[in-house]
Amino acid sequence: MKILVINPRVDFLEEQVQLLETIGSVSFIDSHPNYSDAMFTDDEEKIIALGPEVVDWQFPAEAIESIK
């Protein structure tokens, strides 16, 4: 399972990151993501965690609909 954390890694304790890594592969995205990017549209199961400040408190419906 892929875990995409749209928030800077520095906001997490190492223990928190290690716990997430027991569930799947963790990627941190520090800046506003490109919603058309393949990270959202591949077929792998995923968890997406949003830091509201990073996405300016908005996550477009089109991006949600593109998540498989």
> Are there runs of 5+ residues with pLDDT below 50, and where?
none
Please work out how many helical segments DSSP would assign: 3
**Given the helix and strand composition, which structural class is it?**
alpha/beta
* Largest sheet composition: 3 strands, parallel
Question: What is the spatial order of strands in the main beta sheet?
Answer: 2-1-3
How much of the sequence is in beta strands?
15-25%
Rounded to an integer, what's the Rg over CA atoms? 12 Å
Task: Write down the overall geometry.
Answer: flat
N-end to C-end Cα span: 12 Å
The average pLDDT is 84
How much helix, percentage-wise, in residues? 25-40%
Q: Count of DSSP E strands?
A: 3
N-to-C order of helices and strands: EHEHEH
